[in-house]
Amino acid sequence: MPTPGVPASGARGAARQTSAGPRPPHPTAPPRRIAVIGGGPGGLYAAALLKRLDPARDVTVWERNAPDDTFGFGVVLSDETLGGIEHADPVVYAALRRDFVGWDDIDIVRRGATHRSGGHGFAALGRHRLLHILQERCRSLGVRIGFRTEAPHPDVLSAEYDLVVAADGVHSTTRGTYAQVFRPQVTEHRCRYIWLAADFPFDAFRFEIAETEHGVMQLHGYPYAHPSPGHHPATIHPGPPDGSGASTVIVEMREEVWRAAGFDDLSPRESAERCAKIFSDALRGRPLRSGNSAWTTFRTVVNDRWSHGNVVLLGDAAHTAHFSIGSGTKLAVEDALALAACLQEQPDVGTALAAYEEERKPVVASTQRAARASLEWFENLGLYLDQPPRQFAFNLLTRSRRVTHDNLRLRDARFTGAVEREFGCPPGTPPMFTPFRLRGLTLRNRVVVSPMDMYSATDGVPGDFHLVHLGARALGGAGLVMTEMVCVSEEGRITPGCAGLYTGRQAEAWRRVTDFVHRQAPGTAIGVQLGHSGRKGSTKLMWEGMDEPLDTGNWPVVAASPLPYTPDSQVPRGLSRAQLTDIREQFAAAAWRAARAGFDLLELHCAHGYLLSGFLSPLTNLRTDAYGGSFERRLRFPLEVFDAVRAVWPAERPMTVRISATDWAAGGTTAEDAVEIARAFAAHGADAIDVSTGQVVAGERPEFGRSYQTPFADRIRHEARVPVIAVGAISSWDDVNSLILAGRTDLCALARPHLYDPHWTLHAAVEQGYTGPGAVWPAPYRAGSRRPRTGRTDAPRPRLTLSG
């Protein structure tokens, strides 16, 4: 059924398909004729908004499916999204509001126990109903919709129309047509899932875990339709035929579990019947229906660009985010709102599309990071099954890192308090201020001042700067303060300003620092990080040119293999067996000096592409002898160094190891490798693993974001069964509390926050109203343990207004 006025096929359409692609947007005119490919919620809402904002526009929608065809059952929208809809189109908002199901609670069900958390605030309605509302709104505004109609080729539409909105879904034909411009990346994940429905309403958002003989399966369920009038009243109209209300049910499991359970041989109907039996308690013995759904794997879609000429991507065509943090419909609707606003605000299509992309891409990227964290949590669900029940529930609720300890406490203080009590928090004690023991050392809280290179030593000797820098952070309340990487030899320095422990003079200078910490900040531990720069040595101070070779005075550098760090870097010498022995002894000698200098903890630096890290990574270790090749051989030298250091380090004092858990580069160290590396060091006596990432190869592509490295620590903690220190963009005390209470880490190391505020830990205690032993103010500072007043806020308010 071709749409009137638009060629769908034939000679003219065929000719267009061989054209050079979308025509450039008109430089000055707003769009008058608009084509929308895809009649899902995002495409329909964009069409309605664009027509409503300018009734003179010609807006046409192509949808290859029938009006009632849909995949999935319920749609969840946030308060923020609903607010945008209300502001942009009160008619649509009013129609949605009449059918929304609202609820506040989340139930987590595992091993027969249910833990409920309240105060969350959800709203959902049936996907069919949402489509009908948007279809009706489009018709009332004069938008033309062609159902069961394939859209013409994008080249044809871009030539006939001023703007082409491609809302054609996760398998977007438009995106594929211009893949060389959009540069999509589609990642397929490890779990299989199926959309089902139950003909009754859950009274909460329900997560239920089933531990079967084949493996772990999980149910995600939420209500989307109220019981019809005449049924018994419930907090939870159109649903199933009997009017009893309805819920979306998503069943998800790892691919290998799905196959072992035989789901690969079952039809959708048979799968629904099987799932209903597995989750019979959650369903109260009722059946499930499958609709048009089939088992599938989730695909994360990312595009480098969202527009090409006058063609723009919207919704799943541009991006996807895992269903476990909310509906893709939410993102599509928000895209439509932003696109309509940009087209209204900007003078022409090109400027508007650039503004749309600039506005939406950071928001979507943040959502996708949270969705990825949530997705991976469910992929690795089996790691957490042995957690205490309330901690497991808290871990699930905070999995995306968007819901935090403080946020959850505001929503449901009773639930959060129960989790804290189970964890062992004394009354009034935030998780971050609980003690932690490593061998013979008890840290009074879970905060670590992360190692930070200061490049301020002279001939490797720490001076007054180090005394003030580390002393200030020790006075600031952290449980453990770490030095920068302290080099084990002159040749092992990164820069001429790096500190060392290869002479007695250096050890004496470090003793001055440790004595100050122990005397003036009792209860604070101080640790030393020992390392060797390897191929990243002989470079300028960071602020003069990071990783750039010195202009003069270079010293030769060494590495596992003769590979320069960057094309401009010095080519290192590959180490001989004799040189390996010398370096191992240098580490042992430095450790002996560190013990005499009074350090409480020693960390071996095996991360960030420095010497020992260079042996671990297959990208930097190309040796063919006993120290290269296989995973075990690449581990050999770092473990030999660890053993030599442990032999001279006092038995009662703990040792940790910092590793790069991924190289962020193809062919490099993986998360799976990191678990095995951690296991190996733990077997040799490491008391904790400090889990960082990257900086091993210059061509890395890190996935930055809030707490972005903590999933690696989480995995190592649960798979290798060794305490971990999490690092990487942990910036708030709320983050620390969340990570500790969820069991994702044992300690949190923060760098930049301690540069911004040396008293970060003490101030975190003040802001949380905590005054216990986990955060003790030094006696001379106690008068400053309350936030200073900034100005009068208690002036009397006017009571009377006198008229003249």
From TrEMBL:
Domain NADH:flavin oxidoreductase/NADH oxidase N-terminal, chain residue ranges per copy: 432-764
**One Pfam family named in its UniProt record:** FAD_binding_3
Which residue ranges are recorded for the region named Disordered?
A: 1-32, 780-804
> Record's Gene3D superfamilies?
3.30.9.20, Aldolase class I, FAD/NAD(P)-binding domain
InterPro entries, alphabetized: Aldolase_TIM, FAD-bd, FAD/NAD-bd_sf, OxRdtase_FMN_N, YqjM-like
Name the CDD domains on file.
OYE_YqiM_FMN
Which residues does the UniProt record annotate as the domain FAD-binding?
Answer: 34-368
Q: What is this protein called?
A: Bifunctional salicylyl-CoA 5-hydroxylase/oxidoreductase
In its UniProt entry, the species of origin is given as Streptomyces rameus
